Amino acid sequence: MRVEVARHAGVCYGVERALKLAQEASEQGVDVHSLGPLIHNPQAVAELRDKGVEVAASLDQVDSGILVIRSHGVDPEIIHEAVDKGLDVVDATCPFVSAAHACAEELANGGYSVVIVGEEDHPEVEGILAHAGRSALIVQSADDLPAKISARKIGVVVQTTQSLSRLEEVVNALLPRVTELRVCNTICSATAKRQLSAEELARKVDAVVVVGGHNSGNTTRLAEICRAVNPHVHHVETAAEVEASWFDGLESVGVTAGASTPHAQMAGVIEAIRGMN
Ligand code: F3S
User: Fold this and answer.
1) CA nearest to 269, candidates 255, 248, 251
2) I need a surface site. Which of 13, 111, 142, 266 has the fewest CB within 10 A?
3) Average model confidence (pLDDT) for the chain?
4) Which residues of the chain have pLDDT under 70?
């Protein structure tokens, strides 16, 4: 059986950087906490815990040592509070997310009413909102725009993992209704590349195995995309979940993984599948 791996799969630049910074922090010989699970991957979080990186649900749970800010970024107030508490802050905010923060701030300072295209409850969007000024409007689609827009200058910034079509939809709806529109396209291409290559792969193989946390939104989305074009899709976290019966009589299987899936985890699954040949 042929095993084919998606052209773009597995951990993205921002997550890999966050994992490296947390690993380095764990070698400092002090207490280390990440504010929230560092990534949506239970195995990677457990591995970090074994190395001494605990997960704190809030700043109140951390009294000393190093605080690692995850790749989603946070409200800068939280970083100020952590520094005031005497914590050593390791900021693992992904540089693409920092770019969205900078755009949001620039738009707000330039007198634009800011519209954020993104998911309201997502931690990344909360961080962008904090940089855009609390009066910014969060929309997930053009339908969320208010019937009446009084601002003449609108600035748009977008959550890094949104699709370009979503951004275009909101921009097209705003354009006829304002006199000035400035758009910062802060979408990071990692998600789109993984989605496109997953679909491409799913179309040409007999079955697909998608590797990544069951709690990972981006991995689950990859599985959905594959399922839309291929009925034989299995979402697993580790090699232990792979079953030989899935591949009975098949000629090819494709493997892909979400942006929060460490390469070693994907490699383990590939090895397990090859061992079942
Ligand atoms: Fe950063 Fe893009 Fe990954 S924003 S965390 S490189 S998905």
Assistant:
1) 255
2) 111
3) 95
4) none
